[in-house]
């Protein structure tokens, strides 16, 4: 204990002074005592100053050699350290919660009871087109200016969400909103963008309508011919006519078969995200596609093959075969007789590999290019049907490309011809050298 040490010193010096006084009858002892007291006071003053300076920042290392202050400084320092750790833990928890709230894929906005914005996350910024910083403190009702939202906000409870159609950022949005009261008169607004979901729903509906339509046409033709044949009086149809009807019916049955096969391929492609990574010998695959193309062409086209033999791909054989055959048979279908189709398979300088089919056929007008790989999209439905197309070939090819980290590139000029390419990322390419 430093105060007892000080007391001991004081007693010692007082006794010494009293001894001197008594022995020599002089005041020298008291002068020494006064001097010693002065020195002790000065030292104490300095120690107190050091403690005062440190106390302004008690989280820093405490000063050494502070005499009687030592105990107090030590316990204050321990307390401050404990507080600092508690504050840091709290801060870390707070930061983690805030980053989680920021990262939420749904929009979250906190509001006071007057609908003034206190905070919002990144998703809310995007969905509701809010401006960070600038919109804090603004009234959300004024910002959105939507009478249905105002009516919803003015309710006293919010059991159901509101589906709001609103023009934001120059486009029409469909947003689901829900207000949730929390703490003292605070409100949490949860917002989700439905635009994408609605688009998907429309695509799904269109798809079902398209499939039904595509199936109904051959079915109608088939049942029409069947009825004619069944109801025709005996001997009314010549053998030649019967054969002709049977041939047409067979064509329609084949068409339905092709459609169903393509639909099954598409659905199989959609069941998993990425394709296998088996080593596929592309030159062998291209060779078997070559046989199909040559038989479809029947010698009516000039086919030029420029294939790098030992350039392989990590992927799925059936899918790749379907993609490269689709591009090839399309070229044959949409290229008039006696014209040329060039097939190339090469490694490129950046390590990627390109399979391209270039024809000098009918070509495609630029306005159709962005939609070409949509399901059932055809430039000329009649021509596509006449050629035995289903309108699903490029959709399948695009899907296969995506599953193999490849790009489907299309270049075309109306009346001049087209180049359809599959460009495989270097990770998927295996070259012999
Ligand atoms: P389809 O079964 O009708 O050929 P695809 O999805 O394979 O369906 O192709 C979609 C459309 O793209 C075709 O209907 C056709 O209009 C156009 N197309 C595809 N390949 C070519 C090509 N090589 N030349 C011209 N048009 C093409």
Summarize, please.
The chain is of the alpha+beta class and 433 residues long. It is 52% helix and 19% strand.
Describe the structure.
Helix 7 (195-231) packs antiparallel against helix 8 and helix 10 packs antiparallel against helix 12 (393-403). This protein has helices at residues 2-24, 28-55, 70-103, 122-127, 140-144, 147-153, 195-231, 239-271, 282-297, 317-333, 381-386, 393-403, and strands at 107-111, 117-120, 162-168, 171-182, 186-193, 278-280, 302-307, 311-315, 340-347, 353-359, 406-413, 417-424, 429-431. It is α+β, with helices and mostly antiparallel strands. The strands form 3 sheets. A 5-stranded antiparallel β-sheet has the order 2-1-5-4-3. A 5-stranded mixed β-sheet has the order 7-9-10-12-11, covered by helices on one side. It has 4 domains: 2-93, no CATH class; 104-193, PAS domain (Beta-Lactamase, 2-Layer Sandwich), CATH 3.30.450.20; 202-270, Helix Hairpins (Orthogonal Bundle), CATH 1.10.287.130; 278-431, Heat Shock Protein 90 (2-Layer Sandwich), CATH 3.30.565. The protein is elongated and about 160 Å long. The relative contact order is 0.06. It has 12 helices and 13 strands. Strand 1 (107-111) and strand 2 form a beta hairpin. Adenosine-5'-diphosphate (ADP) is lined by residues 326, 330-331, 334, 359, 361-362, 364, 372, 378-380, 384, 389-395, 418.
